[in-house]
Design brief:
Layout (H helix, E strand, L loop, with lengths): L2 H14 L7 H25 L4 H14 L8 H18 L44 H6 L15 H30 L38 H20 L4 H23 L5 H5 L13 H19 L5 H7 L4 H18 L4 H20 L3 H21 L18
Length: 414
């Protein structure tokens, strides 16, 4: 095992416990020291040629650390961490782990990443995504996200486990990369040119897809589990990012847009027929990447509901579910991205006042998360967003937002 993996895990774990109602500034400084040691170890291994899957795991954790709100956060640091992750995964060729498996979905360079439907749409919502095992109650309270992850078959050999680890590593890396491109799109920046952004580089079974070969037939085909659908939505998103930068004719762009629209509808329909709690538990990543403007009003209503649920949760920082949020320094960027997207929607169509209502709904969560996780870069970007929202509200004849309230709620449970 790479030393950087241990150090990176300690760094992120320490940071997640170091909000203003946790370990505080001293914890964040300790997390940064651990992060620096992990990065130095990772670079040393990379430069010496000691590159294996545990180094890729360390790079993934460090990329998540740098995507979080912390005192030393900068766009340059976050970009460097993604580049290291991209280089290591490419060097190990992990995204093509299953290229010789006939059931693996593969995609061409210029086409929409389409996965053919494997079954008709069921008559009513149903699901088989909930893991077949049950974690002890203590484990669930400590790491509730575990209860929403695909199974690990106890009959797998060590080699099988390692291969599935590598698959889930790559799909987790795609989550970070997709979030990076979405943030760039929301704030008008150019995304990094990463290998992970190209769907044609993927020849990989979806998370948990391999389980269909050893377990009873699920209610949903393996390529239509919640985890597979999320992965497909991210592939579709990054393919659109790639297409927007490609030098193609208007006719080719129109054909691509039509195919992308159709695939987005297929993914959304499949998500709608899941009755499990996993999508709600994911909270932030479910449908963001299959949004289209013709469904702007529905999207805004859906996101307002999300914002209100989170705001209600964050107002009482003594519940177990709230600890999931108060220990996640990377969520603040997602909320800010939703505000930026909503402002863009309103600028395109001033009749969409629901977009400004959504911005208002997201302010309280961002205020609280800003108080919990002091970060100069984040606060500067948030101040700019608030100024734009104030101008938009005045122009629309709506009440502008109240001044920011960066007071961390008290908690005795953390």
């Amino acid at each position: 095992m790479q030393p950087s993996l241990v150090l990176a895990g300690l760094a992120l774990a320490t940071l997640m416990r170091s909000s203003e109602i946790g370990l505080g500034q001293s914890g964040r400084l300790q997390a940064l020291e651990l992060r620096n040691a992990a990065q130095a170890s990772l670079q040393s291994s990379y430069e010496s040629g000691w590159i294996d899957t545990t180094l890729a795991q360390a790079a993934l954790i460090l990329a998540l650390f740098e995507a979080s709100a912390h005192p030393d956060h900068t766009a340059e640091r976050a970009a460097t961490s993604l580049l290291y992750l991209d280089w290591i995964i490419k060097r190990l060729n992990l995204t093509r782990l299953d290229e010789h498996d006939p059931e693996t979905s593969t995609f061409t360079q210029t086409a929409v990443p389409v996965v053919p439907r494997q079954s008709p749409i069921p008559g009513q919502a149903n699901c088989g995504c909930t893991p077949s095992y049950r974690l002890p109650s203590g484990d669930i309270s400590t790491s509730p996200i575990w209860n929403c992850a695909p199974d690990w078959d106890p009959r797998w050999s060590l080699a099988d486990v390692r291969r599935e680890e590598s698959r889930r590593l790559c799909w987790s890396a795609l989550t970070l990369v997709a979030a990076h491109t979405a943030d760039c799109a929301a704030f008008g920046r150019k995304p990094l040119d990463l290998e992970l952004i190209k769907p044609s580089n993927y020849a990989l079974l979806f998370p948990g897809e391999i389980l269909s070969r050893t377990q009873p037939a699920p209610l949903h085909p393996p390529k239509e589990s919640v985890w597979a659908l999320y992965s497909r939505s991210m592939l579709l998103w990054i393919s659109c990012i790639e297409q927007s930068r490609a030098e193609t004719s208007d006719g080719e762009k129109a054909e691509f847009a039509m195919q992308a629209w159709m695939e987005a509808s297929v993914i959304e329909d499949a998500l709608n027929f899941h009755a499990c709690h996993i999508e709600q538990a994911s909270l932030f990543v479910g449908r963001d990447y299959i949004f289209n403007r013709k469904k702007a009003i529905d999207w805004l209503k859906y996101q307002i509901g999300v914002a209100n649920r989170v705001k209600a949760t964050l107002n009482v920082l003594t519940e177990g579910q709230t600890q999931i949020l108060s220990n996640r320094p990377f969520y603040v960027w997602w909320f800010m991205g939703q505000i930026a997207i909503s402002l863009s929607l309103w600028s395109f169509d001033n009749s969409l006042t629901q977009a400004l209502e959504l911005c208002h709904a997201f302010l309280k969560p961002v205020d609280i998360l800003t108080a919990l996780w002091p970060c100069a870069v984040q606060r500067a970007r948030y101040a700019d967003l608030r100024a734009k929202l104030t101008d938009a509200c005045v122009a629309a004849g709506m009440t502008p937002p109240l001044p920011a309230d960066f007071v961390a709620p008290l908690s005795t449970s953390l």
